[in-house]
């Protein structure tokens, strides 16, 4: 059985103060409720399932000791597309509500723009055909960049529907659905199917899409101290910039930050993200109170050769004012022995820490059962998949990133998993004030 290397000093961590006993300049985190009317963090069975599937050892014992909580909101647990994407349509109000209930202290809105230049939450400008019911709305489907094309003997079914094809009002009329499509579909109705088997359609019942303003209001209404992490989406080639010849990427980046300023949200609560260095540098220059903790999403190391290059440029990013780097999990971990049976921090992770960069990682609970990640060549486990064989290793992988590498936050499609771990080890996540 594969073994994962850890050098954690469990005794010291076990003695760490619980989240609700610590002090900071922040509003108090949620505490265990005193009565039935108070908001209670609810983690459900999944964290316990993972712990039960772990191999015996100090890490399992530590996590078992936390089984009865108490559990509080933690900024270390970052809700990806809301934090309940494993089961609930992404970027929807219902997803955000579930992620908040599972203790995420930071909730994400991927920011796209509509035809009338309003900002909305959608993982891609051009994913409406797989994440909403737009193809079932003939008047809106007709506006898609590429209307639905049924499968035939030589080509799969296809469509391409972008937020930039429709107005904010039209966007708000849609139902969000679980991301998926049926490539053999002959009708738009059949094309709606395709949710991965390890997710579920149980809650796929017309979830509510969110504008950026609606997201801000919703997250700000949740009990406890919650932060925001808006990600400025890079427009695909089908949406050339400047949009309509006038709307530039720079203005798009400004508009996202200005939405929070208009709402009176403190900059320390906003963790702006982008895959484009130019966006991050604009925020550093024009909105320093936001930019000093803006997050550069690094996706430049997807081959062994480019990963070396990506690691080498990290000191340069730090010198230009970037303080937080956010790579995928597979950039941070590698094999620790010649038999590919152990996992250790990667040279990229070591380089990031040496450069003085804080690290936020993505993406947990995105890959389905760990039993098959090697056979499926899953992206997030690609640099260490042969050392992974069962779901209990989820927390072993998380332990290396949290307690050896020292990441300051983890994006997850199921916030309960990361909330449980963070509470057990007293991980609060990053505070914007620390970067002033």
Automatic annotation (TrEMBL):
InterPro entries: PLC-like_Pdiesterase_TIM-brl. The keyword Hydrolase applies. It comes from the Eukaryota. Keywords: Glycerol metabolism, Hydrolase, Signal. GO terms for biological process: glycerol metabolic process; lipid metabolic process. It catalyses: a sn-glycero-3-phosphodiester + H2O = an alcohol + sn-glycerol 3-phosphate + H(+). Belongs to the glycerophosphoryl diester phosphodiesterase family. This is glycerophosphodiester phosphodiesterase.
